[in-house]
Design goal:
The chain is α/β, with parallel strands linked by helices and 262 residues long. It has two domains: 200 residues, 2-enoyl-CoA Hydratase, Chain A, domain 1 (Alpha-Beta Complex), CATH 3.90.226; 47 residues. It is 40% helix and 20% strand. The chain has a seven-stranded mixed sheet with strand order 1-2-3-4-8-10-13, sandwiched between helices. Strands 5-9-11-12 form a four-stranded mixed sheet. A two-stranded antiparallel ribbon has the order 6-7. The radius of gyration is 19 Å and the shape is globular. The two termini are 20 Å apart.
Length: 262
């Protein structure tokens, strides 16, 4: 399924079941313009529908920035709406309905909408020189693409509110210590480490992963009774799959399971 819809976003499948989506505007620090928003939104839909892709890594080209967020030239020209799509919100991504796990490979800084892209992913692997921040208030804006509510869920409240109100940056080491990100690695290993994490996820039953994440993502949004009901319903769906039968069979036969994703 390797291919592109536009040069500013590319798609690769480096090994079975894992895709890499790369933002490619390094000259603009991978700032989001209308073309990126439309292309990324198309890839989200395409990957969500592809039964052979189980995990996706999102990264930015150039090594300086994962993404600097909205292209302020477009914002200043009154084209802010063009940086979103009806289905996915900002960048065609932050509000998109996704069942598959996405990992942000943050090489360099993730600021403003770039930070919001990372927060919209399920996991984050960051380079040692990475930093995160929501500087919107320094430009008379708000982090309206999820930042103002996702950051307080991911960090201690006082720290999140400080970052939102001051526009200050959080470096990778401190972000790791507070649990905002999963791993900090040498810069040259950012993408490969994200792919290692993706491979460890793709080694598991894909439907079980998706059903589990669907529930886990709702942890802060709903009550225990609803989560219990969702868990029971997910288990019933899993029990109808071939993979549900394959897991115990492989254990008894002392061999690696052969997942088929159905």
């Amino acid at each position: 399924m390797t291919g592109t819809t536009a040069d500013v976003v590319t798609l690769e499948v480096p090994f079975p079941h894992v895709a890499v989506v790369t933002l490619r505007r390094p000259e603009a620090r991978n700032a989001i313009n209308a073309q990126i928003a439309a292309s990324l939104g198309q890839f989200v839909s395409r990957l969500e529908a592809d039964p052979d892709i189980w995990v996706v890594v999102l990264t930015g080209a150039g090594g300086q920035a994962f993404s600097s967020g909205a292209d302020l030239k477009d914002v200043a020209a009154g084209r802010l709406a063009s940086l979103s799509t009806p289905a996915g919100g900002f960048a065609g991504f932050v509000l998109a309905e996704r069942t598959k796990p996405w990992i942000a490979a943050v090489d360099g800084f993730a600021l403003a909408g770039g930070c919001e892209l990372a927060l919209a992913c399920d996991m984050i692997v960051a380079s040692e020189d990475a930093s995160f921040g929501l500087p919107e208030v320094t430009r008379g804006l708000i982090a309206a693409a999820g930042g103002v509510y996702r950051l307080p869920r991911a960090l201690p409240r006082a720290l999140a509110l400080e970052l939102i109100a001051t526009g200050a940056r959080l470096d990778a080491a401190r972000a790791l210590s507070f649990g905002l990100i999963n791993r900090v690695v040498p810069k040259r290993l950012t993408l490969s480490s994200a792919l290692e994490l993706a491979a460890s996820i793709a080694a598991n039953a894909p439907i079980a992963v998706r059903e589990s994440l669907t529930i886990a993502r709702k942890t802060f949004d709903t009550d225990d009774a609803t989560l219990a009901r969702m868990s029971a319903e997910g288990q019933l769906r899993i029990m109808q799959t071939e993979d549900f039968r394959e897991g115990p069979r492989a254990f008894i036969e002392k061999r690696p399971p052969r997942w088929v994703g159905r």
